[in-house]
Amino acid sequence: METWEVLVAIVGLTVITVVTRSFFMIPHRELPIPVWLREALRYAPLAALVAVVAPEVIMSNGHLIDTWQDARPYAALAGAAWFWWRRGILGTIVCGTAVLLALKFGLGW
Amino acid sequence: MVGIALGIGAWGLVTGVAMVKSGMPWPAAVLMSLLVFAGSAQLASLPLIATGAPIWVVWATAACVNLRFVIFSAGWRPYFGHLPVRQRLLHGYFSGDLNYVMFMRRFPEPKPSPEQGPYYWGSVAVNWCTWQVLSLIGIALADRIPTEWGLGFAGTLALLGLTGSLLSDKATWIAAGVAACAAVAAYALPLKLNIVVAIAAALAIGIVLDHLKASMPALPPAKANDLT
Question: Could you say which residues from 39 to 58 on chain B have a Cβ atom under 8 Å away from some Cβ of chain A?
Fold first, then answer.
């Protein structure tokens, strides 16, 4: 891409960020959102988070992990165990990353 | 918020490094970080920009990756829909995923109240600053940070903890399980559409479960998880 094309792409991407993030807030009058959809929206953030996390933990290169020598599931389990025990996000990150690095550099996975 | 900020920061760093490593000149990377301000859309569009894909393909990809924000914006509407249009756009633009999740946990009742504005701006300020500072550091140090440190996984772990804080009752556990299966099963779809599929599947099962619960009034109501 030429430099000006990259700039146009970036400006367009900015517009996309604004429009997607405020989509249902843009119209002046409230759009009719059905009650069932409004209620179901409480599951949306949970679903989006899980949808990002699950493939990152149990897939590699578009397939389910087919070896037990992959540090990520163990790191995620360690993080989840910490969260279940102490309910802190910082501890979850530290605990999971510690397991990840230990398996990667300790055992060479 | 410290833990969440750590995860956001790790993610920003990864995105900053990725922009430069994809061959983008650093001024463009800085501009992209400051303006676009959407990590997953940026990461998805980088390989397309690098290989010289048509601009409309770049835009279409980013729009699909951002579809979840369209769903979130319906959730924002009851809180900020009464503001002037410029304010509504600003509230939309600065709201990252984690701001939405935390806001909805703090204010489960979809009604405006005076303390929501300060809470919103405080939350997005932490998110924006952490993200931008670490993203700019990533751009500056791109060539000195080895990728095998697994930095990206810190972001995933932050999301994992946040997911845990949203699991409050049986219905949310089931919805999460359905979302996980759908996201993995639909992974082969282009443009990260598996995330949209997973959200749709989880919303569908959530509706069914809520109706089942409503028809069985003997069960005690679900308690919200009061986490800080």
Answer: 40-42, 45, 49, 52, 55, 58
> What is residue A102's DSSP assignment?
I
Percent of chain A residues past pLDDT 70, beyond the cut: 100
3-state helix, strand, coil in chain A (%, to 5): 75, 5, 20
| Cα four-point dihedral sign B175, B180, B184, B189 | positive
Contacts of A40 (CB under 8 A, 6+ apart): B203, B204, B206, B207, B210
Test B203 with A44 for CB contact under 8 angstroms.
yes
B177 token code pair: 């399980």
- State whether the Cα torsion A4-B131-B10-B179 is positive or negative: negative
Mean pLDDT of B183-192: 84
Q: A41 and B92: CB-CB below 8 Å?
A: no
pLDDT digits (tens, 9 = 90+) for A37-82: 777 777 887 888 888 889 888 888 778 888 888 888 999 999 999 9
Alpha helices in B22-115 (DSSP H): 26-36, 39-50, 55-65, 67-80, 85-93, 97-106
The mean pLDDT value of chain B amounts to: 85
Among the partner residues B35, B75, B149, nearest to A10 by beta-carbon distance = B35
The angle at the Cα of A30, spanning B222 to B121, to the nearest 5 degrees, equals 65
- The percentage of residues in chain B with a pLDDT greater than 90, rounded to a whole number, is 40
Phi, psi of A64, deg, nearest 5: -60, 145
pTM beyond 0.90: no
- Which pLDDT belongs to residue B148? 63
Chain B residues whose CB is inside 8 A of the A4 CB are: none
